[in-house]
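User: I'm preparing a small set of examples for a lab meeting where we compare how different chains pack in three dimensions. I only have the primary sequence for this one, and I'd like the structure in token form so I can line it up with the others. Please keep the answer compact; I'll paste it straight into my notes.
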Amino acid sequence: MKKYGLLALLYLFFGFFLIYPLFTILQGAFWVQSVKEGEVVTRLSLEYFELIFSNPFYRDCFLNSIAIAGWTTAICLVLSLPLANLFLRWDFPLKFFWSSAILMPLILPPFVGAIGLKQIFARFGSLNLLLAELGIVDLQHPPDWLGEGGFAGIIILEVLHLYPIMFLSVQAAMANVDPSLRDAARNLGAGGLRIFRTVTVPLATPGIFSGCAIVFVFAFTDLGVPLMFDFQTTVPTQIFNLVTQSDNPIGYALVVLALVVVTIFFVLGKRLGEGNYAMMARSASYDDIKRFSPLMGWIVTGLVGLVIFISILPHLGVVINSFSQRWFMNVLPQEWTVANYAEIFSMHMTAMSVKNSLQYALFSSLLDLILGVIIAYLLVRQQFKGKIVLDVLSMLPLALPGLVTAFAYYVAFTRPPFDGVEWLDPRQNPTLLLVIAYAVHRLPYIVRAAVAGLQQTSVTLEEASANLGAKPLTTLWRITLPLIYANLIAGTIMTFSFAMLDVSKGMILAQETPFYPITKAIYALLGRIIPAAPAIACAMGVLAMILLAICLGLASKILGQKMGQLFKS
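Assistant: Understood. Below is the structure token output for the 569-residue chain.
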């Protein structure tokens, strides 16, 4: 009976905070109201979608978002394929160091990295000023590295942030290719490039398409980077602009359109990655790894170092800017200071945002921990009808972009019958909705972590406890949880860190200054006419970098190679 009581509460939670908001979006996008003979008539229609594609502005928004995602995915793939093959098949100096350093771009949200990138690559940024000092560039007509109002800059920043994700996915897929197949191709006279093109890449197709799907979806739905470049003609920025206009159906239609594109690309990636890729053996043996000559090895090391250096340029720009007191028309700051970090805690908005983010992240991670343990225990240790439904509901948020979830929450709880409920209305107090939104979006991580721990823990220990008369809760507290605590701690750390630095939900749900999280405060700072505002925003970004690096390091240390199990469906 207790089992079904928990199931009822879980279904009620998911129904209210997942299914209902999504249904509200679908209702607003497809149900059109009109007055006919003095009566309001509601009918099913694609009218709002027709308006989007017939309006040149919204059509450009959609095409720009597709172009940004497409170019980002293509460039990440072109960059990751040779890098993954290099790290997997070749030995060269400093390989171990570079294999860790190549993941550094992940510790800085691209939303914050935009500040550093603009400082370096703007028309009068550090790069052009340096080239001008060398006599290469004329500052009367400086090159526009960010291109077309920031369009190129958005793609550059997305690539620099996302290529490590593509790299990890491609490298894992290539590592599973049977080395004997490459040996067979080599014995038949095929060269290295042909083997890579005709054997390695085709057999690594599932991982390649998986990485492409993740990168495309992230780039298509990312809100922070276009906002930081003030590039308004994208789907995410228009959704953000329409969020307070809950009576404007275009916002609903844009969200549904984004969801459809994400779904199509996930399904397409899955279908294209299907097929018979099974092999008798996996991974490269030590003998399969080739070695460069000493000179070529150091050349390769230098090239890899150059790629990594370019990828962390936004980080360097943010760090340098955070210590600048005056930085204008100069390659480096004219004056340096550490006062920007003190300003974070002396300014009311920034100090409050740090407190808010800690509060939101802490409560959302605790909620995730409770829900994750209950769901994982039911899925692994209990038998009941509809288990697949609970599994799908717990993993569904992983396929929903944060932008979609945030917009759905805002419109669902600012209209009847909940528009008068203060604790659910984000316009009055978004605290509860932010905590739940963060928790729901990251719940799959801790569910997967707990499921992995329970699957690796023998049930006989729990049965022995029950045979000795222990109650189920006692067994759970004294036996089960201590055995899987490492998985739970790692999953909770990850949910905490991601909630601290989430962009979409904070930007959309936190409308008033007293409730701003860190990301919304950074965005608000850059809109203020204060000389030190960019430097203070960068100082907050550096703190965010340090926090995320510590959290990911701890989670990786605890889980080790089992980190990948958090993302399995």
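A couple of notes for your slides: The two ends are 28 Å apart (CA to CA). Confidence is low (pLDDT under 50) at residues 561-569.

User: Perfect, thanks.
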